[in-house]
Amino acid sequence: MPVNGSPDSPFALSPDDVAKLEAIREALLDPSPRRIGRLDQWGLADTYEVQAEIAEYREFQIAMADGTRIDGGLSTPRNLAPGQTCPAIVMPAPLSDFGRLAYFGTIPRWTQGGYAVLTYSQRGLAGSEGKIQVAGPRDVEDGVEILDFLTGQEGIDADRIGCFGASYGAGTSLLLAARDPRVKAVAGASAWGDLFTSLFENGTRHIKAFEALVALFHEERCSEEFQAIIRKIRANVIDDEVRKFAKLRSPMEQLKAYNDRELPILLTTSWHETIFSVPAVVDLFTKLQGPKSLLVQVGDHGNSELPGLVGGISKPTEMTYRWMDHHLGGSAGDGALPQFGIRSEYMHNLLSDLTHNDWADYALPKQRFHLGAVPAGKQDAPLTQGQPQAGWTRSVQAAGPDTGIVVAPKLVQTGLAERVGLPHVYKTAEIKRDVAAVWTTAPLERPMRVQGDLEVRLTVRPQTKNSTFTAYLLDCDPATGRAAIITHAPYTLTDQQAATVTFRLQPAHYVLAKGRQLQLIVDSYDPFFADENTVPAALEITSPKDNESYIDIPFATLP
C-alpha cells in the first residue's frame, strides 16, 4: 500500500508503525542485544533474535546499466550446505517515502520459511537515484537487472524466484513477471489491472485519487515523460500519448505472457477501492489461464494488507506466504494449501469468508429494477421489478461542492473505518433533490445479498457539450433515513446532446437486512471526480419507450 510520513496524507502510517519499521531496520543491520532489545516494546525481540541467528542481512546500491543506483537490501539464510540453494522473494517497494522499508515486517516470516529476500525501491523512490517512471519499461528493465544481481549471489535457486508487492510494488511485480521468465509466481496486494481505466473510468477523470498519487510520487522526482502526462490529465487532454503511457504500465496488456507460461498469480483488492479500478482487476483475474487467486476484502486501497506488512497478520500476506510455498517450495506459511479461485468478505463483516471457483460461480444472477416516475406529491421515485417504466423525465441541476452524497468523504480512511464496522452514514433526507434524483425500492421482505457485477442504463440529455454524473446505490434504513453506500460509478458524456448509456458500477458483496431499502441516486457532482459540467442546468434523465432506464443487481435471498 502507499504509505507516507506526512500526517496529512490519506496513506499515512501511524507514528508507532513508523518507529517500529525504523527500529526493525536498525536491528537487521546491527543485531546487537541493544538494537534487538528495542523491539521488545512491540513484542518482536524474539522474532528478530531468531532472524539474526538464521539469516544475514545487508544493504547496498545496485548499479543499473545507465549508471542509476537502486537502493536494495538482501536477507540470505546462513549455513547453507555446499551446493544447497534456497528460493527467493523479490519485493519492489510500495509508493512510499520509506520505499522498501515498508516490507521489513515480513522478512522474518520469509527467512524462517527458508527464503532469501531482496527488497528494493524503484528508481526515484526513497533512497534510489533517478526519476520516477511509474512502473514503466525502464522500471521493468531495472527489475531484470536486479534479478541478474540476485541470481549471481551464492545459494540462490534461479528456478525458484517469486515476486510480491503492494500497490506500486504489485504493479511492478506483475509487469516484471511478464518480462522475465525467471519469476515463477507473483502476488500483488492492492493491485491494478488496467492503469488507464483506473485514471479515466467511463470517460471521467479520477482526479482526487490522481492528485493524491502525484503528491506521493513528489512531482519534482518524476520523469519528464510522467510530468507531461500529469499536465495533460490535469488539463483534461486524454490523447494517444496518455493512452500509450497507461497501456505500457497495464498488466492486462501482458495476458499472453502470463497465459503462455501459465504463471501463478494472486491478486487482492477491496470493494470500495478508490485508487485503482476493481472491475479491471476482476477482468484480469477472469482472463488469466494459469493458477490464480483473487481476494476481495472490506475497505479501501491498502487497508487490509498493512497489518501484515508491518509484522502482524493479514489475509493478503498469509495467502501470499501459502502461495509462494506451494509454487516455490518454501515453508513461510502455516502449511495449508493456497486458496485458488475467489475468496471474499462482504460489507461490513470482517469475519465473513466465502470462497468460489471463479467469477461466474461467484456472481449471483442479475435481477432488473426499473426506474419509475415521481408520483404526485412525492419527491422521490420508485425502483421496482416487473414492467419497464417509460415516459418520465427527471432534471438534475449542476451541483456545488455539497450535494449530501459522495463516493467517499476521505480517500482510504473512509474504507479503513468500514473495516472496523463503521461505514460512513449518509442521511438521505439531506441529499439535495434539485441536484440529485432518487429512486427507492419498497422495504425488503427478507434478508438479501448483493453479490457480483451491477449495471445501469440511463438515457441522458445534457444541457452542455460535456456532462458528468455519478450513480450511487445505497442501503437505506427507512426507519431512520440513515444509509450506507453499496457501490457507485461515474460517467461523462462528451460532445453529445443526448444518449442512452449502459455502464458498470463497481462490483459489490453486500448483505441487506429485512426491512431495508435499496436506493439509487444520480447526481451531477462528486469531488472525487473531475467535474465536466459547465452550466447550471446539467442534465435531464429520461426513460423512452424501448430504452427504459434500469439497474441490474446480482440479488438473491440469503440462505
Summarize the structure in short:
This protein has 16 helices and 24 strands.
Describe this structure in words.
The structure is a single chain. It contains 16 helices and 24 strands. By secondary structure, it is α/β, with parallel strands linked by helices. The protein folds into two domains: 56-361, Rossmann fold, CATH 3.40.50; 366-557, Galactose-binding domain-like (Jelly Rolls, Sandwich), CATH 2.60.120. The longest helix has 15 residues, at 15-29. The model is unreliable at 1-7 (pLDDT under 50).
Q: What's the structural domain tally?
A: 2
Q: What is the number of helices? A: 16
Q: How would a crystallographer describe the biggest sheet? A: 12 strands, mixed
Give the uncertain stretches in residue-range form: 1-7
Number of DSSP-assigned strands: 24
CATH class of the largest domain: Alpha Beta
If you consult CATH, what is the topology of the largest domain? Rossmann fold
CATH superfamily of the largest domain: Alpha/Beta hydrolase fold, catalytic domain
Helical content, roughly? 25-40%
Shape summary: elongated
**Strand fraction:** 25-35%
Tags for this model:
26% helix, 24 strands, alpha/beta, Rossmann fold, 559 residues, elongated, ten-stranded mixed beta sheet, Jelly Rolls
Please describe the topology of this protein.
Layout: H1 15-29, H2 33-37, H3 45-54, E1 55-63, E2 69-77, E3 86-92, H4 107-112, E4 116-120, H5 137-151, E5 156-166, H6 168-179, E6 183-189, H7 195-199, E7 200-201, E8 204-205, H8 207-217, H9 224-234, H10 240-247, H11 255-261, E9 265-270, H12 278-287, E10 292-297, H13 306-309, H14 315-328, E11 341-346, E12 349-356, H15 359-362, E13 366-371, E14 381-384, E15 393-396, H16 413-419, E16 426-427, E17 436-440, E18 448-462, E19 466-477, E20 482-494, E21 499-512, E22 517-523, E23 539-542, E24 550-557
Parallel strand pairs: 3-4, 3-5, 5-6, 6-9, 9-10, 10-11, 14-17
Antiparallel strand pairs: 1-2, 2-4, 7-8, 11-12, 13-14, 13-24, 15-23, 16-20, 17-22, 18-21, 18-23, 18-24, 19-20, 19-22
Helix pairs in contact: 5-6
